[in-house]
């Protein structure tokens, strides 16, 4: 009987160990750059580690590049912001589902003296047309990042293909929104930028927000678990646990709702998980 009890205990310990190993103490995340540079991703990673002991190792890249990296099998999940690219990633079998996480918005920024005369325009597409008509300098990331994808959608809506000396694809655009905004400021040019990046750098630049609050400028950010069927060695169980925490109204979503308020007077992102929306009656 004693041998049976000891054997049963051993089996329980082995099973517990196996479960622990399957989840692991590390998760590999490929993420869009903006929420890293704003501090949002580091804050979520820090709080998750405090609560669970699991370390989130994140690699930042433009959305197109982040998804490309995840297609190579070295990541457990991705956080990105370009719906069409995300849907293709899932359709191709590399991700299991797009899960709403948070959002903010893009703004069109430019010199305070506004040589293109776009200040106060209601539609970003109209502002882009005016910038092109005036041959006013415009800086593009040009790297298939979420920001670049959003920019291309606005040009498409304006029925324009931007060309000419006034339109510059910055060769270092893949370094992220913050460096791009700083470069645009140095060039006294126009660009499209996520509001979080603008807010965090506002005190260091002279550019002004000239066009905002257009539905076409909403910046939805999703989290996608990478497919374990495609890559059996990834930490799929750990990714699901982290996503459950990120989308829980009293965990990740609460942190998102408060992030930036103390420093900037308003949160930099809006929670957007189905759990958060259900609690809010949306």
Could you explain the architecture of this structure?
With 282 residues, the protein is an alpha/beta fold. It has two domains: 162 residues, Periplasmic binding protein-like II (D-Maltodextrin-Binding Protein, domain 2), CATH 3.40.190.10; 114 residues, Periplasmic binding protein-like II (D-Maltodextrin-Binding Protein, domain 2, 3-Layer(aba) Sandwich). The protein is built from 13 helices and ten strands. The radius of gyration is 22 Å and the shape is globular. The N terminus is likely disordered.
Second-tier CATH architecture of the largest domain: 3-Layer(aba) Sandwich
Low-confidence stretches: 1-22
**Main beta sheet, described?**
8 strands, mixed
Q: Helical proportion?
A: 40-55%
In short:
With 282 residues, the protein is an alpha/beta fold.
Q: Which characteristics define this entry?
A:
282 residues; eight-stranded mixed beta sheet; D-Maltodextrin-Binding Protein, domain 2; alpha/beta; two-stranded parallel sheet; 2 domains; disordered N terminus
